[in-house]
Design goal:
Layout: H1 2-10, H2 19-32, H3 35-48, H4 53-65, H5 69-82, H6 87-100, H7 105-121, H8 126-138, H9 142-154, H10 158-172, H11 178-194, H12 199-211, H13 215-228, H14 233-245, H15 249-262, H16 267-279, H17 283-297, H18 301-313, H19 317-330, H20 335-347, H21 355-366, H22 375-387, H23 391-404, H24 410-426, H25 431-444
Helix pairs in contact: 1-2, 2-3, 3-4, 4-5, 5-6, 6-7, 6-8, 7-8, 8-9, 9-10, 10-11, 11-12, 12-13, 13-14, 14-15, 15-16, 16-17, 17-18, 18-19, 18-20, 19-20, 20-21, 20-22, 22-23, 23-24, 24-25
């Protein structure tokens, strides 16, 4: 198809020739891998329309790829000198000089001359000021770069100008220069007051004050933005975090609770709230927010199972089950998660009747030596088996659980011993063995 299209275009009469046609021929030739024909077609298109910057850039790139740096430089120079009224032409030539010969003082000198001429035609234009500043700095001309900084500070062009002034200040002045810092303080405060709805500006101002150890001012910058833009949820969350950092715990908690009320899946807000509540011993609230964070963003197997254990220890099997069901979504083949889910499902009255299948699935995922050898899992599974009349299978799992419980789990071991003895007593068999189990259980747990 491409070959046919190329042949058709090539057959078009010379009267219909145009830069666009040559450009198309060049693209098709390039896709065919015929780089020589592509270069020729692009060069022809550029000659027909020398003021088309995309063609200039493409042909210059071809010359650079062929190692002809001088040819590419000539192309950009002719483009710039032939279009003195076009700022893009001047910037393109200056950028080429800097990028192609970053360590060449002569190239830097040419770039400066080009940019200074452009600055005369386009006074106060930020892209030119940015390039002049970097070039002066690279040449060690600090007095000139300071002049550029002052001109940007005097009349910053919107957010971009403010951001550039801040960046220039970091380059020019040491961190402990309080006078320079005060000027940036004023610039950012005034700019945020004029443009409170600008999130990027608010974040920049807040970070400036935060990183210089002035948290109240950092909070103020974000507060002003959130008030102006109530829908700015990420910044509202960041405000809550900053309030906590500044010791404003009541305000920070309220802000973060607003965030999760608006978006229940804002995981970072939930995580921060969970940490706050753990710090103050509010375990129940911490668990709920930690669970929602995991459900929203996911986490490691250990993150899920450790929190599920907290719910189970607090006798909240339903919460543990819901958390572990989400964990299986993130880790569908993980045996440890499946084992915990089976236990939580059996303990939760809402899901107890369906838990038998989960125990089987967990054993299948685990294998003989996997997490399904956990004694808690085995004792819970044994109860499930007994309910369905599978006494022998239940006995086997209880025996394994009794052997598996660590020495410090005496109460749990005693419970398993009593349960096994109770099975035998109920069926009037192994009576002597049952008595022995009960004696052993009593020695472990007299109560």
């Amino acid at each position: 198809m491409k070959r046919v299209a190329l042949a058709w275009l090539a057959a078009v009469s010379p009267l219909a020739a145009s830069p666009k046609l040559d450009f198309a021929l060049g693209i098709l030739a390039g896709e065919r891998g015929d780089h020589e024909a592509a270069a020729a077609a692009m060069e022809k298109a550029r000659e027909a329309d020398p003021g088309a910057y995309p063609l200039v850039a493409r042909v210059a790139g071809q010359r650079m790829a062929a190692g002809d740096v001088e040819g590419a430089s000539t192309l950009y120079r002719e483009f710039a000198t032939g279009s003195p009224e076009r700022m893009d032409a001047q910037l393109a030539y200056a950028d080429f000089l800097r990028d192609a010969s970053p360590d060449d003082d002569f190239a830097a000198k040419l770039a400066v001359e080009t940019l200074e001429k452009a600055a005369g035609k386009f006074p106060g234009h930020l892209p030119i000021q940015q390039r002049l500043f970097r070039t002066y700095e690279s040449l060690g001309q600090r007095d000139r770069s300071l002049g550029i900084f002052e001109s940007v500070m005097e009349a910053p062009s919107g957010r971009a100008g403010v951001m550039e002034a801040v960046a220039m200040s970091r380059t020019l002045f040491p961190k402990d220069d309080l006078k320079a810092r005060e000027r940036v303080d004023t610039l950012l405060k005034d700019s945020c007051a004029r443009m409170p709805q600008d999130a990027v500006l608010a974040r920049t101002a807040s970070e400036h004050f935060r990183t210089t150890g002035r948290l109240p001012e950092a909070v103020e910058m974000l507060s002003r933005h959130v008030k102006a833009m109530p829908s700015s949820l990420e910044m509202r969350r960041q405000l809550g975090v900053l309030q906590l950092m500044a010791g404003q715990e009541t305000e920070g908690e309220a802000t973060l609770l607003e965030v999760v009320d608006i978006d229940i899946n804002e995981a970072r807000a939930h995580t921060t709230l969970a940490k706050l509540y753990r710090k103050h011993g509010r375990a129940a609230e911490a668990r709920q927010h930690a669970a929602q964070a995991l459900k929203s963003r996911g986490g490691s197997v250990s993150d899920f199972t450790a929190l599920a254990d907290e719910f189970l220890d607090a006798d909240l099997p339903r919460e543990a089950r819901l958390l572990l069901e989400k964990a299986m979504f993130y880790h569908p083949d993980d045996a440890a998660t499946a084992v915990k889910l089976a236990v939580a499902s059996r303990r939760d009255p809402e899901s107890r009747s369906q838990s038998s299948l989960l125990f089987r699935e967990a054993e299948g995922l685990s294998g003989e030596k996997g997490p399904a050898t956990d004694p808690v899992f085995l004792t819970e599974f044994a109860e499930c088996l007994l309910e369905s009349g599978q006494t022998k299978a239940a006995e086997d799992r209880l025996r394994t659980a009794i052997r598996t419980y660590p020495p410090d789990r005496k109460k749990e071991t005693a419970a398993a011993l009593r349960r096994l003895a109770g099975i035998w007593e109920g069926e009037k068999r192994n009576e002597e063995a049952a008595k022995a189990l009960l004696q052993r259980a009593k020695s472990l747990d007299p109560g």
